[in-house]
Structure formats: C-alpha cells, structure tokens
Amino acid sequence: MENYPKVLIIHGPNLNMLGKREPEIYGSTTLDEINANLKSLGQKLGLVAETFQSNYEGAIIERIQEAMGVCSGVIINPAAYTHTSIAIRDALLMLDVPLVEIHLSNIYKREPFRHKSMIADIATAQISGFGVQGYLLAMEGMAGMMRDA
Ligand code: DQA
Q1: Which protein residue's CA is at the shortest distance from atom 1 of ligand 1?
Q2: Of 41, 124, 140, 149, whose Cβ has the fewest other Cβ atoms within 10 Å?
C-alpha cells in the first residue's frame, strides 16, 4: 500500500463544519465520515487518499506546495476560496498532475458570485452538485484517469 500513488484531497474553509453547517445545502455527513469513505475507496482503487482541511488560505497553499513531486493527483474543494483565490490557483498551477475541482452543491444554481471559479479552467475535471457522493465520483474518476495515462 505504501507504493500506491497518493491522491491529495483538500477541503477548504468551513468544510470542517460539515454535518452542522447549512445541512439543507451541504447534507448531514461529517468531514471525518467523508475522509474515512475516501480512504477505504482509495484502498479498493489502489490509491492512498491523503486528506487535508484548513480554514486558512496560506495553509492550503503550503500543503499544495508540499504535494509537488509527491502526489499523483489532487482533488480540491476550495470552498469560498474557489471564488476568490488567485494564490491557490497559482499554487495548483505548479503541479503537473490531474486536478479535480469538487463542490457539494451545484455552484451554478446558487448566487451569482458562486458561478465564477478561479480554478475551473485549470482543472482536469469538475464535479458540482452531487453532495458527498461527488467525492467518491472524483476518486473513481481520478483512478480512471491514472489507469488511462
Ligand atoms: C462549496 C461551494 C462554495 O461556494 C461555498 O463557499 C462552500 C462550499 C460546495 O462544496 O458546494 O464553502 O465549495
């Protein structure tokens, strides 16, 4: 398992509050449950899921920098930073690996300020609106892209 390719899954601000945060939009599953599901799906797919959450832009950027040359793929829900962060975009641009942008809600169905993503045009793929299921779809898609590469 140590030899399995690593996929870094990054959760942005306020996602540590999943389960309690606006459950009508984001559902009742907690971040710990999502991470546990990602780790066990990763094992089945032959991938190691490394998970990281921060409410701080700089911490997310530093985690992306650490992934350089180490991780074979990145799945990121930048949360509110999706719509604002050129710095996270720039950090992701340094990586030369498949990048999946994911959102629990369908950001295009919500307020206009959520329609703009700073990373959509540099992502390999985007998943938006499947709720927690989206993370598992992202992981399966990542495994498929790696198999085909
Ligand atoms: C989100 C959508 C963002 O607009 C919002 O700021 C979030 C979560 C989502 O997963 O649907 O925090 O990324």
Answers
A1: 79
A2: 149
